[in-house]
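Design job #97: recover the sequence.
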């Protein structure tokens, strides 16, 4: 992995709890709260300044802008929810560009595991553990915060262990 282990560890300390919160709230209410996305941005502004070299820190704001524009276009086309687009944009600066291919493959695996795990739980007695969750009765809609948050958390934790 191209992300440095120390950078990934600093980011993971602050972001893993937010990723878990985003996964939970999206399964429960089918929405990713704005305050979670803003917290991610604030964490990047503060922790990123200390965890990254200045040139990398500044360039990663471009990642945020590119992801935000792409997410807005996908949202306008109905391919993605607004919360998902905002989460991806807020997560983009935490990703080392050299790890992008790895992250895409890992996200695909996380998405498949999340989708099938959610669908199996939805049609099993496990559903009774959280009876009020909107994602159980949302038809074809799927809480993308579950794989998005999971993939970012796994990426940072793996980066802390296997990073450069």
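Job complete. Output follows.
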């Amino acid at each position: 992995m191209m992300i440095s282990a120390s950078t990934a560890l600093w980011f993971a300390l602050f972001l893993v709890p937010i990723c878990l919160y985003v996964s939970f709230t999206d399964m429960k209410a089918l929405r990713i709260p704005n305050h979670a996305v803003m917290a991610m941005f604030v964490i990047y502004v503060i922790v990123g300044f200390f965890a990254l070299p200045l040139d990398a820190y500044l360039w990663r704001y471009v990642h945020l802008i590119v992801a935000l524009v792409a997410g807005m276009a996908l949202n306008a086309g109905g391919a993605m929810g607004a919360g998902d687009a905002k989460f991806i944009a807020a997560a983009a600066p935490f990703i080392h560009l050299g790890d992008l291919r790895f992250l895409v493959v890992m996200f695909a695996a996380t998405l498949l595991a999340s989708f099938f795990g959610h669908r199996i739980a939805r049609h099993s007695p496990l559903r009774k553990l959280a009876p009020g969750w909107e994602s159980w009765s949302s038809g074809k809609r799927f809480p993308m915060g579950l794989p998005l948050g999971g993939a970012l958390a796994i990426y940072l934790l793996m980066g802390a262990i296997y990073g450069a």
